[in-house]
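Q: What structure does this chain adopt?
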Amino acid sequence: MFRAEDDDPEIKAFDLLKRCVGKIKIPLIAAGGIMNSCDLRKALTMGADAVQMGTAFLLCEEAGTSVPYRQALLKEQKRVSKTTRVFSGRFARGIPNRFMKEMDAKGKDVILPFLAQNKFTRDLRAAGVSQGRSEFISLWCWSGEGELWQGRCAELIESLFE
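A:
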């Protein structure tokens, strides 16, 4: 997604990968919902040159994930997320919370452009973290089921190659 005024087409990562293989002439990096060795293998088998993983690392010991963010991720086994522009002005996928729902309900006309919106919400997000209130912070993650890794990053990486 490059144009801020476009809506999110909600194409799943593996569906997008299938559409791109053979058409993209530069290295193809699969991203979105790759959580374990099975997902990694599937992406590479489908034709990705590499993968990018994010959500899988959020609970690793070395991650800078705040306490309320970690608590929100651990709250339910099945994570539900949606895309929004309310925190930064650009689309990102995260767990819906009070701020996201209330701002999204007001419509996209109240969202400032990228960087301006990010700066506008910076103090709110910082206060949410310091007060332990996940309803006012960005909770970026992918939808999906399964436990998130809660150990060292190196152990997660090793598990991907077993």
